[in-house]
Amino acid sequence: MTNIVLLGGSGYIGTNVVKYWRQKDPTAQFYIVSRLGKSEISGENIHNIRADAANFEQTDEKLPSQITYIVDLIGGSEKNPDKFKQLNELPAQTMMKIAEKHHVKAMGFISASIGNKQLVKIKQKIIKMLNTSDIPLAVVTPTVVFGEGHKGRMAAILDIIGIFSKKYKPVTVTEIAGELVNKVVKAGHKRTSLL
After folding, report:
1. Which end of the chain has fewer CB atoms within 10 angstroms, the N or the C?
2. pLDDT by residue (tens digit) across 101-127?
């Protein structure tokens, strides 16, 4: 059985990751970790877990013993340095500890390429830290993410700039979800074939 843990999976990108992954593997079990323990998606294979992903022990004790993949979808800007660390670094550390403890096939992470410089810098630092693990890491680095058919003004401007540089091309949330899931599964298959 495929057990997938999503830290912060109840948000906008997380919801789309679950939808895409369910289409790809309808038998997979999803363990969605969030502070509220609720998500918009429901079903027999959806398990909402109320925990602070910044706290390894609290999160790990609520997860199944067998975990196939784990993805960290938590992150964002915050002026308070302690809250910034709690929002970005600590969930990534939790993911790596869980991945290593449960010998998962692969980890997934969402980075950042434009916008808040502090956020871009911390995401790069986190990727370096995650890459010290023996567990394969799949990273997706979106620019501006928008919903299907709902481009904002910034996305429209970046569309034009994106003609000249892919670094600034806006992407749909469906594209990001699909890219992340496919990269995580591919990284997991590579690891399995090496074992």
Report:
1. C
2. 999 999 999 987 766 788 888 889 999
